[in-house]
Amino acid sequence: MLRGLKALFMSGLFWDPMVLLGIFTGSLLYFNFEYEQIESVYFDARFYALAAIIGVLYNFSFRPVYKRGGRVIDYQYTTVNAILAFLKLVISSVLVMSFISLVTIF
Fold first, then answer.
1. Residues in contact with 46: Cβ distance below 8 Å, sequence separation at least 6, in sequence order
2. H or E element: which one contains 59?
3. Four-CA torsion 2, 31, 37, 22, nearest 10 degrees
4. Model pTM?
5. 44 vs 24: CA distance, rounded Å
């Protein structure tokens, strides 16, 4: 388990802002809500809409990908990055709750 955590830190994925936001969100949900409330958050479309909006705003504001020449934004590639940012946020928030549950058992 320690090798896996070391690999996570060394890969740089942990320092991605969307992953950090997902870790913060998952921790906040885990420590402040009951199971039924967390379940209702993850079954609500507004949570996913908010995560998608955050992913789009982050990628188009801070990390746009430009076409060759650097003058025009490559909308297709930036949109794919926004979708990946959405997935990173949602998946990391779910996985951090399972990780906290695993750690607190021991």
1. none
2. helix 45-61
3. -50
4. 0.86
5. 19
